[in-house]
Amino acid sequence: MERVALTAEIREKAGKGTARSLRREKNIPAVLYSHGKSMPIAMVSKDVTKILNAEGGEHALINLTLKGGSGAGEKMALIKDFQVDPLSGNLLHLDLMEVAMNEKVRVPVTVHVKGSALGVKDGGIMQLALRHLEVECLPAQIPDFLEVDVTRLNVNESIHVRDIKAPEGVRLLMDADATVVTIQPPISAEKLETMLAAAPAAEAGEPEVVKKKKEGEEAAAAAPAAGAKGKEAAPAKEAAPKKEAAPKK
Q: Is the pLDDT of residue 226 over 50?
């Protein structure tokens, strides 16, 4: 379990305006939650981003130094949640959860797949059904990831939660029968032929749509013609002759 040190400033103001000001200064708004209470803080954006981009950084144990305000001091915390701008990828907000080293916590841990499955070599398709597993343990015992070895996995075989050996002191909270990873059989030649045979049929249906559209357009175009039979169109009025200018005397 990686431990990192970060510094945060306790902030008195909150709101969108304050958050925008912090981001312009290369900081991010954050909140520290503790036993039902919350404390607004500000942190250096690049420091937090560096941790999140590291292996297992989302579950890093943070030694947080708080400055300013009545809550200044040292606290241990875990990253609870964070928000990223979908366009720029910049970090927008961070939620931290204060923890005690002697109290167990529940956190999701990433699943890492190890090895090349025998079933994949035979043409099978590997599917990772669960990318994270929730565990319960002391903060110092949180693993960076849970490793799943698929080397001996054949087609139509799966690895379930009960097959994963958790580190000492770590308890898996997921359903023991839940599938973590499985090897699906390859697509048969018959199924592939059926899929290919169905493709031209779908294309053949397109002219029908075009034909119906044209018939609708023809009907719409014929409507004014039908109305013209019952009533002749009025002849266009002839333009009145221009008056010649009177000759100047």
A: no
